[in-house]
Amino acid sequence: MTRELSHRALVVLVVCAAAAAAAGTVPEDAWARTLRGRGVDPALVPNPIALTPEIRAAARELGGNGGGDLDRLRRIQSALYDSSRFAFSYEAGATYTAGEALAARKGNCVSMTNLFIALARAVGIRVRAGYLSPPAVGEKRGDLVYVTAHVVAIFENFHEKVVFDFYRLSVDPEVDLKRLDDLGLAALTLNNRAVESLAHGDLSRAEQEFEAVVRLAPDYAAAHGNLGVVRRREGDLPGALDAYRSALALAPHDPGILGNLAALYRGLGREREAREALLLADLSRATPYTILARGDLEAADGRYEEALRFYRKAARAGPALPEPQIAIARLEHARGHLAEARRAAEKAARIAPRSEEARAVLAEIEGAVSGPEDAPRDLP
Question: What pTM was computed for the model?
């Protein structure tokens, strides 16, 4: 979803791992017919858990014989983590189908979970899926900020529920996890690939992929927001607004979507609408970048103490990020509070020693000519 913040960050929601819902995998001809029925080109969306001969052979080898379903699933998971049996290299930007992950022996957590689901299905074990959104922090890569949702595989029978997690988070089995069907899994996998297309500047392909995602999973709010990101970058502002409206109809208080919408409004000089958008955002689920944007709006309206409150909130939410400290330093410098400004700038430089922005702010403050250090002055 696109939101270009004043800190030059674009927020994109990415799924970090994926799973599926039914026990059997849809045959490829039926898969293609289903996709065409949704108006999606099958060539764009491979079945992420297709049961190839290689997958079936690996499932027999890794799952072993004997024991119940849960025993076999645990053996498969253990084998995937055992480098002496299955060497697998983590690669954040590589979202693969199960077959691709098996062949490449690398990929991200989506790839690993796709592979686990396919292996489980290959031995006839029913596996469902669930996903949740952990507290948003956001990882900045270039001018994109990635916000990660978490999706896990779930085995259930009459007596128990076991979560199979292929990411660094630990998921409480009692948490209410949303279930996914196969089209939802395909949509989440394609969403990741579309994000990578966006990151590489292939806007045309990214738009095509995100449009396919929302056809496959029309209730997936983040995908509508991501589509808005692409359209805004392409200069299609009406199209971006339409995408954000669709996203907000599904998630009215989503901070990422509202932050992107606010950034679009700010770019159009529509400050009132930008403020109204951010006022609706649930900041308890927001990344530090969205909280910073709220602070920027307060500063633009002359509400400097409120701006500082949001900047400090962003700093608490993202203690390893330099941007909140840079924002604090700039505002305090503008107010003539050079001691506070220097402390924040120095902290930003310690957090990110290679940040040119942090170094520039610190140099500007250190070179400032002032009277008494904390004498307030008019803001420009």
Answer: 0.82
